[in-house]
Amino acid sequence: KVYWEANRMRVETYTVAGVMIEIQNGKTLYAYNPAKKEAVKTTLPSASITVQARLEAMAAPIKGGKKVGTETVSGLKCSVFILSTKQGNARVHVSTDSRFPLKMKTHITKGNASETTEIRNLKLNYNVTDALFALPKGTKVVEAKAAIPPKTGSSGKK
Asked: Are 92 and 105 in contact (CB under 8 A)?
């Protein structure tokens, strides 16, 4: 599930390991694990990607893909693209609706393995509550450690 409003976004990912939820409020990003009731908080640098830029990246045209037709996914008309690379093949459905110009369905195959991601329950102009962009009470929040050490001078000293 994906919810967004202005510069706030919530993405719920369902996997065999359970649900993971990512909440971004401006420059603050939380990776929340409901099973553990724990979230990792990251303060994004000012040059980091905004919610709007993330959405635009999701809507980017399929590079190297060939448009092969149109189909409907979750009630929205989509352009269908086929992409073949050394890593595998993909069939991608991209919505042509200006309110939601994102990838609606992606099917990837590599050898005998395949994976399908599909938006199945789309609601546009949905009344999004503030609670969707907040962590539940009692969530343990830990600060993320820097993934990249700060740059040092030419001598290697800070």
From this structure: yes
Whole-number pLDDT of residue 60: 65
The pairs formed by 114-118 with CB atoms below 8 angstroms and a separation of 24 or more are: 118/73, 118/74
Q: Strand, helix or coil at 103?
A: strand
Residue whose token pair is 């919810």: 3
Q: How far is CA 121 from the centre of its chain?
A: 16
Choose from 53-67, 90-104, 138-152 the range with maximum mean pLDDT: 90-104
Q: Give the pLDDT of residue 56.
A: 67
> For the residues 98-121, what does the mean pLDDT come to?
77
- Which pair of structure tokens corresponds to residue 91? 């069939």
Mean per-residue pLDDT, 43-70: 75
For residues 123, 125, 129 and 134, what is the CA-based torsion angle, rounded to 10 degrees?
A: 70
- ∠ CA 102-18-105 to the nearest 5 degrees? 20
Q: How far is CA 158 from CA 123, 144, 146, 151, 152, in A?
A: 51, 22, 16, 8, 5
Total H helices, total E strands in the chain: 1, 11
120 neighbors 133 (Cβ within 8 angstroms): no
